[in-house]
Amino acid sequence: MSLTHIQSFVAVAEECHVGRAARRLHLTQPPLSRHILALEDELGAPLFERTGRGMRLLPAGEAFLVHARRILAEVDAAVHTVRGVAGNRTSG
């Protein structure tokens, strides 16, 4: 499972639409759809219901979204921490 797959999942979950999520991530739809399919395959469960108008989270997707957002927040915090430490070392 890659960070890119998690970011893709969160974008689709929040937009409820692959096209809008692809634009948000500066991707085209085919690679974004592949990210979602790969993630679902790895997790062994469908995360979305594909509808005529977009995507709707299934219960497994709703459960994963909580963790996915937490993972992204932790990665963001780690990046900020490292940049802060690196900034302190180069200026001190």
Automatic annotation (TrEMBL):
<keyword id="KW-0238">DNA-binding</keyword>
<dbReference type="InterPro" id="IPR036390">
    <property type="entry name" value="WH_DNA-bd_sf"/>
</dbReference>
<dbReference type="InterPro" id="IPR000847">
    <property type="entry name" value="LysR_HTH_N"/>
</dbReference>
<keyword id="KW-0804">Transcription</keyword>
<keyword id="KW-0805">Transcription regulation</keyword>
<comment type="similarity">
    <text>Belongs to the LysR transcriptional regulatory family.</text>
</comment>
<feature type="domain" description="HTH lysR-type">
    <location>
        <begin position="1"/>
        <end position="58"/>
    </location>
</feature>
<protein>
    <submittedName>
        <fullName>LysR family transcriptional regulator</fullName>
    </submittedName>
</protein>
<dbReference type="Pfam" id="PF00126">
    <property type="entry name" value="HTH_1"/>
</dbReference>
<dbReference type="InterPro" id="IPR036388">
    <property type="entry name" value="WH-like_DNA-bd_sf"/>
</dbReference>
